[in-house]
Design a protein that fits this description.
It is built from 14 helices and five strands. It is mainly alpha-helical. It folds into two domains: 30-66 and 200-264 and 273-297, Nucleotidyltransferase, domain 5 (2-Layer Sandwich); 70-195 and 324-385, no CATH class. Helix 3 (70-77) packs antiparallel against helix 9 (183-209), helix 4 runs antiparallel to helix 5 and helix 9 (183-209) crosses helix 10 (237-246). The longest helix is centred in the middle third of the chain and has 27 residues, at 183-209. Residues 368-395 are annotated as: Disordered. Residues 67-196 form the DUF5624 domain. InterPro entries: DUF5624, Glyco_hydro_18_chit_AS.
């Protein structure tokens, strides 16, 4: 038997909260008129659009599709979880597909190592934020593939010894004489480099706009990464970069994460008018959220107010056994905090894996005048990677 709905009570429900003729919709329209000339920033998974207001055309910055080197660096950072995954498979299903998968990963590492070169990073991938570090990155990639190939070959020869303990001790952390750079540091370096590039480009773009950050409205729309990731400001890398670029001038309550909001089409350089068509909807969304929150403050004045977190991260205590979020990083040698962040971004499904240290990279750029060369890249700068031998074909 279908549930019974009272037409009269349903009408009462829709009068306030549903449909374009509802009180709520009219409330949003009234609120939107009050912010029609305020700067609005909308970030999607691929682009950031700046709507200055009062009918002006948006200024759009593609930041994801124009990213160079992201997949190449992700390929290296993924070697850590790939080896750990194969170890679990080997222990839980010794006769399963792990051996074929390990052999395929071994072949892929060899092919990637053969293709890797200083020239590849300097002349083809060509990331502005990496300028001057191309030789170091090439050496890191060469080393990463070599140590992974070694561990995979060992696993295929002695599968019983391919345990998670062995992966941790001989690969992720590793004795110094056998593994001069633990792979956990390489994961941090690749994530940092990705964040450095993203933050450098966006900070430069925002600085060129000369924004009135105190009045700015921000929406981060749509899905970010895995299905459960980026749904909080703490876990959303782009939201963090925007806050950092604002240099503490963006009001805490003026940024909304809206994973279910409509997403304007990816910008291809010619479809600015299609992006502009989304502006009124975004302004109505932001204005409605802002007006409703203020309504709550007015309706329940005298009760404790909601105060968003300051955004400051808590340092790890000497005896900390758990954390509720990514801990603060003291400096580029704070390996305990940075490695804890690797665990957090994998263990907390709200996190973006590539966002492990993006906020740290962003702040280092701000502190260094947005000069990537003045920033220390943990896990890369000063690490004893053997120089890549290009003349011998990386053999």
């Amino acid at each position: 038997m279908p549930p019974f709905d009272s037409p009269e009570l349903l009408d009462l429900f829709t009068t306030y909260t549903a449909g374009p003729a509802s009180i709520g919709a009219h409330f949003a329209q009234v609120a939107m008129r009050s912010c029609a000339d305020q700067p609005l920033i909308v970030a999607t998974g691929t682009d950031i659009a700046f709507f200055a207001g009062s009918g002006s055309s948006p200024v759009i910055q593609p930041f994801r599709l124009s990213t160079r080197g992201f997949k190449e660096l992700a390929a290296v950072s993924h070697l850590g979880p790939a080896l750990a995954t194969l170890s679990v498979m080997a222990q839980q299903d010794p006769d399963g597909s792990w051996r074929a998968d390990a052999a395929r990963l071994l072949d892929a590492c060899k092919a990637a190592r053969a293709a890797n070169s200083i020239e590849l990073w300097r002349d083809h991938i060509r990331v502005t934020a990496f300028r001057g570090r191309e030789a170091a990155i090439a050496s890191m990639v060469d080393y990463s593939c070599r140590v992974t190939e070694h561990r995979l070959s060992q696993a295929l020869d002695r599968p019983a010894a391919f345990t998670m303990h062995a992966v941790r001790e001989e690969y992720l952390e590793g004795p110094a004489q056998d593994l001069p750079v633990p792979f956990s540091r390489i994961m941090i370096a690749t994530f940092f480099l990705t964040g450095l590039d993203l933050a450098h480009r966006l900070i430069s773009w925002f600085d060129g706009l000369d924004l009135d950050w105190e009045r700015a409205m921000v929406i981060v729309a749509g899905r970010a990464g895995r299905a459960t990731a980026g749904v909080t400001e703490e876990s959303n890398s782009v939201a963090g970069v925007i806050r950092t670029a604002a240099r503490n001038r963006l009001r805490p309550a003026h940024l909304y994460i809206a994973p279910h909001a409509p997403v304007f089409p990816a910008y291809d350089g010619t479809n600015g008018s299609a992006v502009a068509g989304f502006e009124d909807g975004y302004r109505a969304l932001w204005a409605s959220l802002d007006a409703t929150s203020k309504l709550g403050a007015d309706m329940f004045a005298g009760y404790p107010e909601f105060a968003p977190r300051s955004g400051e991260r808590t340092p790890l205590g000497a005896g900390s056994r758990s954390v509720a979020e990514k801990p603060a990083i003291a400096d580029a040698t704070d390996w305990r905090a940075m490695t804890t962040r690797l665990r957090v971004v994998m263990e907390d499904s709200r996190q973006l894996l590539s966002g492990a240290v993006t906020d740290y990279a962003s702040q280092q750029l701000i502190d260094s005048g947005n000069d990537p060369a003045a920033v220390t890249v943990p896990g890369l700068d000063g690490e004893p990677f053997p120089p890549i031998n290009e003349e011998s074909g990386n053999d």
